[in-house]
Amino acid sequence: MKIKFCGAARTVTGSQHLLEINGKKLLLDCGLYQGKREEAYNINKNFLFDVKELQCVVLSHAHIDHSGNLPTLTAKGFKGDIYSTTATRDLCAIMLQDSAHIQTRDIEFVNKKRARKKEQLFKPLYNFDNVRDTMKLFKTFPYRRKFYLAGFKEKVAVTYFDAGHILGSAQVLLDIEENGSTMKFGFSGDIGRPHLPILKDPEFMGNPDYIISESTYGGRVHDKATEMDIQLKNVIIESLSRGGKIIVPAFSVGRTQEIVFSLSKLFSAGIIPQFPIFVDSPLSTNVSDVFKIHHECFDNETSEMISKGIDIFGFSNLTYIKDVEESKNLNNIKGVCMIISASGMCESGRILHHLKNNIQDERNTVLIVGYQAPETLGRRLVESKNIPGTYVRIFGEQYKIKSRIYVLNSFSAHADREELTEYFGKFDKKILKGIFLVHGDYDQQLALKQVLTDIHFKNIYIPEKGEVL
Question: How many CB atoms lie within 10 A of CB 398?
Fold first, then answer.
């Protein structure tokens, strides 16, 4: 068996791990790399393997850095099966279409500037037809039901276990028979946190012989997930005292729903005063609708609220916005409001327009509630947090940051150092022969490797991109 680490190696985005078993190949995840525009475009366009040699893709979850390059795969000739949970398929149906729309729109904007400079023009990685072709390849399975992968002659079986990260997110356990021997191989996907709102906690997948594991926050400790409501309340009260807007870049899947859920509880309990909330993202609106039909992923608290007839993703002062003109009209609002908009890393979408129009007003607040990859606008906002005289570039223009920036890591959907330690603590060290750390910045991976070494795990490896083991 061979593993080729084709993405998310010593970085967070672009998850792609190629397994060769009995001479045949499968891909774990097929995510978009997110970073500097031209660099990201070139990375996403060129795979580190022959697409036509792939038998299938096993998908952990729907986040774009794990699923977003599937249509490029299809456009290059892939015709195999794409396996996922049902909720992941339903989310991909709208997220990949949204990704195609954003790429087309952003490429048009960039090409106008490149044409004026007589530079080579870009083409979108994929279009709506490629997305439609991709969705035809999906085959879905529930958690904890073993299924065999087509093309492997019943030598490779997969079982999904709930990862507790986003709706439908899964850990992958492969039962592999090769040359008369058997092996269990694990892939963590992205590991969620205990006590996150809405979703169930991560499950134990059993004991693999080897595992590929994420390491996003391998060296950091978050504020507890149970503190989300109180931290959000504190930011809102302080921001309202300045009379401005609260701009929240948020991932359309998971984070937006968690914020709305938290706001719903704060309003209903009378902890914060009523003021207008806008979710300005067609994708977020559609995703919330998908959430409503997948109760199998909800924890007990959420299920009980739904059984009582409570709309957990809606309240009287909340408005979901799809129309472009309605989105533009948000700039004309005087006084306090909160605008929750995508993308979560501030790399594309309507959030860029809201930042452009509001970041130079000292009354306003920018609230960061998710991971920000290096070289993204979101990361630059975090790094410039409340440093006077800092500028950021938006749509090619410089803007001075005058609004106040808050970062709440209690909203993170990724397990932190302590939660990852607890996750690994369930594995039998006598069975687990090797750990491959991916999906993390190198410093975080080194920190997690040390933590795992200290609790006596062995053979912990941090692969480089393109490396074959």
Answer: 8
Is the link from the previous residue into 343 a cis peptide, with omega within 30 of 0? yes
Q: CB-hemisphere CA count at 13 Å for 460?
A: 20
Average pLDDT over residues 135-162: 97
Q: What is the distance between the alpha carbons of residues 45 and 40, in angstroms, rounded to a whole number?
A: 8
Q: What local confidence, expressed as pLDDT, does residue 449 receive?
A: 98
Per-residue pLDDT tens digits for 324-374: 999 999 989 988 999 999 888 898 889 999 999 999 999 999 999 988 888
Task: Tell whether 212 and 262 lie within a shared domain.
Answer: no
Q: What is the pLDDT of residue 61?
A: 98
* CA 166, chain centre distance (Å): 8
Q: Same domain for 157 and 255?
A: no
Structure tokens at 200: 């169930």
How many distinct structural domains can be found in the chain? Answer: 2
31-35, 56-60, 140-144, 241-245: the lowest-pLDDT one: 31-35
Cα 444 to chain center, whole Å?
Answer: 18
Looking at the structure, do residues 402 and 419 belong to the same domain, yes or no? no
One domain, residues 309 and 333? yes
- Specify whether 197 is located in the same domain as 275: no
- Residue 468 falls within a domain, yes or no? no
386 pLDDT higher than 80:
no
CB atoms closer than 10 angstroms to residue 431: 12
440 pLDDT above the threshold of 90? yes
Burial class from Cβ neighbours inside 10 Å (0-12, 13-18, 19+) for residue 321 reads buried
Radius of gyration of the chain (CA): 22
Residue 213 is part of which domain span? 2-220+413-461
Residue 176: in which H helix or E strand, if any? strand 170-178
Q: Is-contact 14 125, C-beta < 8 A?
A: no
Q: Is residue 139 a part of any domain in this protein?
A: yes
Answer whether residue 292 shows pLDDT above 80: yes
